[in-house]
């Protein structure tokens, strides 16, 4: 049985193909369209999934959509009526799209795909819960899903066993932990649904000066983790912005202008809302544990990408272990919808797999050696071909140890927002200037943002205070023997650590553990680097620049390589050195182009 899962029309559109409960393929539309957070109908992602599965549309048994549009439309209408007439501009902007498109999902699916079979709909948070539990290694577990908003639900929890999910409780719009965090993202001058990572990365530079203010004025949190927001301070239910003047007065002035210098206020706001978010999540998790009495917890929804909170939940929470869906946001809803159709609608038995059924989240397209060779040959690029993998890995490790920054393009593309060793930019974590160089000259992004380490799974406890695997880069833990001094942004230059390039200014790191089972070639590269340097850790950041999605194709990778200060590109068996490119291929962006294109100085 072939089931196609789809999410679209809000942000992070995606498609997934599930065959007899096995995940065949999954990808976000942005990777093909090259439009960040593309919300349009995922035609290219669907085409890829069908191709990967070796089937046509006529072979599909079901198409499953990740939420119920009429329930969401009901929430929008009730919200606009509640806040009338203040919501009129937002209402006038939203209604044409709904009346022409979003209410007609079955018709759109049938027309776009030339599909005549049944279309199933799951509720938004049911899709999140399914994406969290069914790929997990647990036979029975509790689940907690938290995001901005689905139809009405912003948070749900429950228990799952075998093939069934049971939601026990929910929090409804407009009370939303995800939207509260996004309000601070907006106020600090970052883009909502994109800049939350930046806010989390900025938090350690500040002090929690506003925590009491947030608790006193913005959110009433109960012991069980349930909460209500003081809606006098927020405009997102009816306006085109997240917050209004009352919120600005509470925090000493208007929102930060995007790309303007960061001040201590933004750092302190980031730290404060991060502290509050972590406390709410811990309270909710303790309540879920009391209610279910279960040993394991599964997480999904956009808030589950807050890896700092996840780390605290693992260390301080009541559960023995947690499993987090790596595509925890709306893209993962496509996967959840397809799995819910197989297990809940069709009532098929569920047998957990070890280490999980997510397959390392390497669910996107791969490209043959010949396809990569054609791209390089078409440009007249000088390259080296390594028929022996060991020689390729030894040379790459040697270049990394020399301080070279390597674009690493291998195998199937990752599903989810993290690069996990197949579409990655790699560097030596021991260099003190690596973090700044990669941020400013390769990623073209803010210098304060941290990088993640990839580490051999068997060595994780040597370098980090973590006693288990973290394959999806969704847990933060302290770096051993790290010492930080200074204040504010100056702390970035006072990191004393064995691996400073991946040590954040609070002495922590967002860790990916790598096993030979899940990613053999990347594992062996880490082994080769360890043999070269004695260090089993590499800087691993996503293969893209600010403002664009992670690369998908060899052409995407090559274009990113020549536009940045990367030194080496390794695609499959091919190695390209920047200093051997012909002059016509040197396309490094000028400072003026960086300013114009990425909004940076």
- Number of continuous helical runs: 20
- Looking at the structure, the CATH topology of the largest domain is DHBP synthase
- Nearest-integer average pLDDT: 95
Distance from first to last alpha carbon: 53 Å
What structural category arises from helix and sheet content? alpha/beta
Query: Helix content range of the residues, please?
Result: 25-40%
Q: Radius of gyration from the CA trace? A: 23 Å
CATH superfamily of the largest domain: Carbamoyltransferase, C-terminal domain
Number of domains: 3
Secondary structure: number of strands: 23
Q: How would you describe the shape?
A: globular
What does this protein structure show overall?
- The chain has 20 helices and 23 strands.
- The protein is an alpha/beta fold and 601 residues long.
- The protein folds into three domains: 2-135 and 325-350, ATPase, nucleotide binding domain (Nucleotidyltransferase, domain 5); 177-297 and 312-318, Nucleotidyltransferase, domain 5, CATH 3.30.420.40; 369-598, Carbamoyltransferase, C-terminal domain (DHBP synthase, Alpha-Beta Complex).
- The longest helix has 29 residues, at 264-292.
- It is globular, with a radius of gyration of 23 Å.
- The model is unreliable at 595-601 (pLDDT under 50).
């Amino acid at each position: 049985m072939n089931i196609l899962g789809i999410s679209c029309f809000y942000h992070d559109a995606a498609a997934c193909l599930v065959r007899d409960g096995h995940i065949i393929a999954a990808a976000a539309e942005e990777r093909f369209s090259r439009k960040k957070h593309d919300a349009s109908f995922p035609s290219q992602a669907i085409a890829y999934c069908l191709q990967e599965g070796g089937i046509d549309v006529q072979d599909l048994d079901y198409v499953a959509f990740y939420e119920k549009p009429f329930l969401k439309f009901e929430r929008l209408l009730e919200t606009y009526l509640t806040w009338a007439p203040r919501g009129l501009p937002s209402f006038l902007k939203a209604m044409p799209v709904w009346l022409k498109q979003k209410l007609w999902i079955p018709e759109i699916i049938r027309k776009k795909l030339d599909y005549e079979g049944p279309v199933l709909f799951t509720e938004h948070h049911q899709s999140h819960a399914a994406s969290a539990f069914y790929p997990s290694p647990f036979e029975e577990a509790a689940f907690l899903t938290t995001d901005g908003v689905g139809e009405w639900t912003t948070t749900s929890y429950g228990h799952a066993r075998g093939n069934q999910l049971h939601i026990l409780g929910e929090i409804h719009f407009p009370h939303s932990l995800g939207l509260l965090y996004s309000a601070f993202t907006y106020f600090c001058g970052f883009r909502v649904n994109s800049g939350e990572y930046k806010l989390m990365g900025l938090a350690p530079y500040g002090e929690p000066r506003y925590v009491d203010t947030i608790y006193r004025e913005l959110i009433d949190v109960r012991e069980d983790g349930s909460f209500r927001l003081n809606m006098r301070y927020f405009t997102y239910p009816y306006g085109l912005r997240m917050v209004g003047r009352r919120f600005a007065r509470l925090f000493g002035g208007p929102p930060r202008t995007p790309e303007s210098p960061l001040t201590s206020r933004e750092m302190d706001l980031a730290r404060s809302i991060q502290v509050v978010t972590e406390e709410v999540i811990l309270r909710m998790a303790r309540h879920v544990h009391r209610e279910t009495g279960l040993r394991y917890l599964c997480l999904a929804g956009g808030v589950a990408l807050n890896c700092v909170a996840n780390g605290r939940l693992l260390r301080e929470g009541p559960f023995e272990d947690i499993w987090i869906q790596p595509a925890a946001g709306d893209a993962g809803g496509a996967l959840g919808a397809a799995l819910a159709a197989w297990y809940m609608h069709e009532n098929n038995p569920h047998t957990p797999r070890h280490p999980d059924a997510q397959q390392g989240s390497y669910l996107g397209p791969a490209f043959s050696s010949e396809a990569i060779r054609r791209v390089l040959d078409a440009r007249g690029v000088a390259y080296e071909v390594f028929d022996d993998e060991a020689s390729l890995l030894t040379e790459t490790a040697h270049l990394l140890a020399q301080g070279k920054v390597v674009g690493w393009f291998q195998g199937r593309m990752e599903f989810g927002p993290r690069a996990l060793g197949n579409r990655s930019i790699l560097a030596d974590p021991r260099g003190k200037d690596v973090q700044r160089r990669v941020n400013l000259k390769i990623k073209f992004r803010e210098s304060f943002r941290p990088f993640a380490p990839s580490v051999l799974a068997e060595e994780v406890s040597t370098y980090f205070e973590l006693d288990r695997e973290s394959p999806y880069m969704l847990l933060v833990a302290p770096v051993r023997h790290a010492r930080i001094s200074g204040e504010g942004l100056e702390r970035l230059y006072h990191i004393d650590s064995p691996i400073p390039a991946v040590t954040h200014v609070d002495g922590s790191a967002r860790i990916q553990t790598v096993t030979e089972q899940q990613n053999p070639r990347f594992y062996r590269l880490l082994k080769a680097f360890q043999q070269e340097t004695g260090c089993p850790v590499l800087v691993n950041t996503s293969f893209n620049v600010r403002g664009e999605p992670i690369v998908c194709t060899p052409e995407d990778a090559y274009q990113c390589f020549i536009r940045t200060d990367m030194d080496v590109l390794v695609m499959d068996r091919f190695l390209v050195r920047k200093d051997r490119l012909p002059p016509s291929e040197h396309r490094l962006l000028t400072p003026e182009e960086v300013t114009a294109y990425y909004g940076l100085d």
